[in-house]
Amino acid sequence: MTDVSPEAAQALRTAARLNDTHAFTLRAQADEATLFPAVREAMMDLADRHLRLAAHQRALARAMDDARTSSRHGGLSYSA
After folding, report:
1. If both were cysteines, with which of 32, 35, 61, 64 could 4 make a disulfide (CB 3.0 to 4.6 Å apart)?
2. Is the dihedral of CA 10, 12, 14, 20 positive or negative?
3. Could you count the other beta carbons within 10 Å of the beta carbon of residue 6?
4. Which of 57, 55, 25 is nearest to 43 (CA)?
5. Mean pLDDT for each consecutive 10-residue tract of the chain (80 residues)?
6. How far apart are CA 26 and CA 31, in angstroms?
7. What does the angle CA 65 – CA 68 – CA 70 come to, to the nearest 5 degrees?
8. What are the phi and psi torsion angles at 41 (to 5°)?
9. Whole-prediction pTM
């Protein structure tokens, strides 16, 4: 069974913030450094992937919150 506890959702939000930080750092490093175009493009692509991962982590945390809320109000049933 998937852990939908508040702590698990908070851990996802924390991981999303870290992925945002990694993405912004990668973008800044790629912009500041004199790199081969392929290396710069790879760094920017990796930054984009970190941002997409962060968005998915936030969406999953929201879905977990919604599942808990629904189960408290009789919408879903699950066992923890």
Report:
1. 64
2. negative
3. 11
4. 25
5. 84 97 95 84 96 97 90 57
6. 9
7. 105
8. -65, -40
9. 0.79
